[in-house]
Write a structure and sequence with these properties.
Elements: H1 2-16, E1 17-22, E2 28-31, E3 40-46, E4 53-56, E5 65-70, E6 73-79, E7 86-89, H2 90-95, E8 104-110, E9 113-127, E10 130-140, E11 146-147, H3 149-152, E12 155-160, E13 163-168
């Protein structure tokens, strides 16, 4: 009976939370289950399976993070409502296989000045559990992964008790 209760409890947790797991080498991954014992973990999102919303929990720096998935490759990304575009590094763009085809080149204004970027429209990407379409992505040499307004404009987002709640428009 105890084993059945434990399994059902773990299943309920897997359906309702997203864990950010950080390994000793600094690599990070997300999963809907308890992180392996050799990693540090933090709950970053509460994701009720019967809900159309995703609640993100701020880290100690008051930043919200969730997963960004393109072409089946998932990476952690920070929500940035001040960023015009979803931004990925060149290395991440290669891993996500979005470096083929045509690009627009240009420059972007950042807090640290003007930088060069490549722009590409991605037909489908996922932010957390939400599938979004025709999202403009900027590729910058050594950028962190930012989930900017080119994706967020397809979602509703609100502050509820210090958490960010995302839902599909």
């Amino acid at each position: 009976m105890f084993a059945l209760l434990l399994v059902s409890t773990l299943q309920a947790r897997a359906d309702s939370t997203i864990q950010k797991c950080t390994a000793a080498d600094g690599s990070t991954f997300y999963q809907q289950d308890v992180c392996p014992p050799s990693t540090n973990s933090r709950t970053v999102a509460v994701n009720p399976s019967n809900s159309n919303s995703l609640t993100l929990i701020a880290n100690s720096g008051h930043q919200f993070s969730t997963s960004l998935t393109i072409n089946g490759v998932t990476v952690p990304g920070y929500i940035d409502t001040g960023a015009t575009y979803v931004t990925v590094s060149l290395d991440t763009a290669y891993r996500m296989r979005i470096t083929d085809g045509e690009f627009q080149s240009g420059s972007m204004q950042t807090a640290n000045g003007v930088i060069r970027a490549l722009m590409k429209k991605v037909p489908v990407l996922k932010v957390g559990k939400f599938e979004l379409y025709n999202v403009e992505v900027s590729i910058v040499a050594n950028a962190p992964t930012l989930i900017g307004m080119s994706a967020l404009n397809q979602l509703n987002f609100a502050n509820q008790g210090g958490n960010m709640v995302l839902s599909k428009r």
